[in-house]
Amino acid sequence: MGFKKLLAYKKAFELSMIIFEISKSFPKSETYSLTDQIRRCSRSVCSNMAEAYRKRRYPKHFTSKLTDSDAENSETSVWIEFALECQYISKDIYNDLDKRNIEVGKLINNMIKNPTKFGVKNID
Predict the structure, then answer these.
(1) 12-54 confidence digits (pLDDT tens)
(2) Cα 74 vs. chain centroid, distance in angstroms?
(3) Region at 106 (left for phi over 0; alpha for psi -120 to 50; beta for the rest)
(4) Taking the CB of the first residue and of the last residue of the chain, which one, N or C, has fewer CB atoms within 10 A?
(5) What pTM value is reported for the model?
(6) Structural element, H or E, at residue 91
(7) Contact between 79 and 41 (Cβ < 8 Å)
(8) What's the pLDDT tens digit per position in 66-112?
(9) Where is 42: in which H helix or E strand?
């Protein structure tokens, strides 16, 4: 199985694409701040997960890259909250994005807690 088949990757990628579409409506003044940041960190969740999957033969590298992915997911959550407070998104959109973000975080943490389910070999 490749990383693109991981549920966590699929959900993170979907969230990133939703954020990309929504952020197109953000003001031009936010292009190099909120818009850029929210897009980069949401995409980074996916790229770090892909790297983790490719490094799964090395348990510590696998976990390290997944914790990077989790950190980027947390950063995404902060930028979603800024978008709400700046009134660039509605409360309904915020709630949907937040729910998806939390789900991605849970899936990443499941991978961290259960690495052998993802092909990581226990090294004694």
Answers:
(1) 999 999 999 999 999 999 988 999 999 999 999 999 999 999 9
(2) 8
(3) alpha
(4) C
(5) 0.94
(6) helix 91-113
(7) yes
(8) 999 999 999 999 999 999 999 999 999 999 999 999 999 999 999 99
(9) helix 36-54
